[in-house]
Amino acid sequence: METKKLIILGALFSLLILLLVIFFITVGEENQVSTSPKSLSSSEKSSEETMETQKVVLFYLSEDGYLHPEEREIPLHPSLADQAKQTVHELVRGSEEGYISPFPVGTNLRELYITEKGVAYVDFSITLREKHPSGSTAEVSTIFSIVNSLTHNFEQIKKVHVLVDGGGRQTLKGHVDLSRAFSSREDLVVW
Amino acid sequence: MSKVFGRGFDSRRLHQRNREMKLVNSQKKIIFFCLFFVFFFVPFLHSQEKPIIKLYGKSYPQFTRIFIQSPSPLNSNIEKQSSLLMVNIKADQSYRIYKASVESELIKSVGWSKGAASYIISIQTNDPDFSCDVFLLSDPHRLVLDVQKGENGDGKNDLSPKRETPPENRDSNGKSSSFSSSQPQSTQKTIVIDPGHGGLETGAHGENGASEKDVTLDISLRLRDIIRRNLAYRVVLTREEDVNIPLTSRAAIANSNDAFLFLSIHANSSFRQEARGSEVYFLSLNATDEEARRLAYLENHSSEMEGEIKEENQDDIEMILWDMAQTAYLKQSSVLAESIQKELNALLGTSHRGIKQAPFKVLKGVACPAVLVEVAFISNPEEEKKLIKERFQKKVAESIYKGLVSYLRRESQ
Ligand SMILES: [Zn+2]
Q: What's the pTM value of the predicted model, to 2 decimals?
């Protein structure tokens, strides 16, 4: 028994060393590749003063019961996660074109991160749940306003997992299951 | 995809961006490495330490004794629902559950499911007319349930366990921790009605103070009475009073009663003031890779589900089954939804409204055709007024009943 344990430990230890070696080699290569500067075409250059922006489409509720698109310009951020964050920030601020915002007043985004497999984890303040009116239709509107807004603008985001106050919840407020990530629902949208 | 980069970058920005990307890349590597480490080592430690809850039973001439054994003291509450006994065990960690044969003349089946921070063990008896005595033993920690036919004990509905030794030989002398109930026995098919919400979980609210939980219970009770009067089906409600039942337990009640149909009754709410009318839902699934894989697994292994799977894998398999039970019934569920929607459209004058799909928690684990009926919008003041009126509640119950009947007719053809 003792020798068996030693063998397992030995094997794991050598695996660890091997992984460490691979890890540092690949990081080194990455550094070399990314230091070569890319050429810029003149049209891409601009003056420092104007803020760079990006157009996104947000989905809000309309009186017909469907989600409708609304275009918005957001500041351009270098990372995907920051772009996605800015998009959700804009979304929960509410519509500028008279659509209905399916978010309780005071809802804030706490954190957003995106996994390599393209699942966005979107963590909202407790307000989203506590001030939510509950009801199947209301919960479906809230969830797919978020999900469709993210999956539509960022093709790297395939699915969206909604968290509240840092944790996974069974449901948003008694109806929609939050224990899994959602794909977008095009059938809820009218263009 | 209408993503437009408003202006370009100057080279300084690009360098900064490259630096940031590099940083992100090496962060990714570190995360990847940590994950690798975790996946390699943690299961090693974990699999040896995951504690076990054992379920086993012993049959005596007058009663069946069921043991629930755990490595730590058991914090539980027990509830009786018709012929079903539900033991809710609080658990901050996950357990392996080993189940030996518990079945007896009185005990039809014993199942279990995992809740948020609990395990629910459901004991299905062959007869709703049974009583149960509960004891706690230590060393090892055991919850002992003595289940017997007929009324016994002092009739108190107190299911808190007693710290005493269960007697080996029992007579009909009452014990303080027993409860009893008697309902007519039946071998009919069962329809489970689930009045949405309850207790502190109130559901949606109307402007004038109506609560979803009250409306759902009223309509469910009326629907139960209509079915009982007209059809040869047994009806079980997931709750008959103002209490909160966890969503997973509602599915467990349906499954343990071997339900034939499951109807979850709700009152709707929308951010739109104008929203009105009924909406009947069945479960939607994310056709994700993971779920597709689970389904394929189930389809390929369903025949060997019963016996051949190793005992240590049994709990995982059962988890998958519980989690995905509804997927096998989506077609029938949509037909049932359509039948009910049609009747409610006629009642509320929303002639063209179709059925809907949504990822509702309460439907996921139900192993029979299941729908969620949003009767009307409690968020619409006009419909709120109607929802609390007896006349409207009766009409709604009748419409759901009619939809049910037309579904049954279609299915029998
Ligand atoms: Zn509800």
A: 0.62
Which residue of A lies nearest to B10 if distances are taken between CA atoms?
A45
Determine contact, residues A59/A69, Cβ cutoff 8 Å.
yes
Q: Across the interface, do B275 and A137 touch by the CB < 8 Å criterion?
A: yes
Domain ranges of chain B: 52-148, 190-412
Fold classification of B52-148 (topology level): Immunoglobulin-like (2.60.40)
Q: Is A49 part of the contact surface with chain B (CB cutoff 8 Å)?
A: no
- Ligand 1 centroid – CA B250 distance (Å): 13
Res B129: pLDDT: 82
End-to-end CA distance of chain A: give it in Å, rounded: 67
Count the domains in chain A.
1
B-chain residue closest to A104, CA distance: B271
Residue range B130-170, pLDDT digits in tens: 888 777 776 677 777 878 887 644 444 446 555 444 544 33
* CA dihedral sign, ordered A106, B359, B243, B264: positive
Q: In whole angstroms, what is the distance from residue B342 CA to residue A112 CA?
A: 42
Record: contact B197-A116, CB cut-off 8 A:
no
Q: Tell me which residues of chain B, numbers 76 to 135, contact chain A at a CB-CB cutoff of 8 Å.
A: 116
- Tokens standing for residue B290: 């993971």
Domain that holds residue A184: 2-188
A78 → closest Cβ in B20, B274, B361 = B20
Provide the ipTM.
0.74
Element (H, E) at B299: helix B289-301
Q: Summarize pLDDT for B199-212 with one digit per residue, the tens.
A: 999 999 999 999 99
Class of domain B190-412: alpha beta
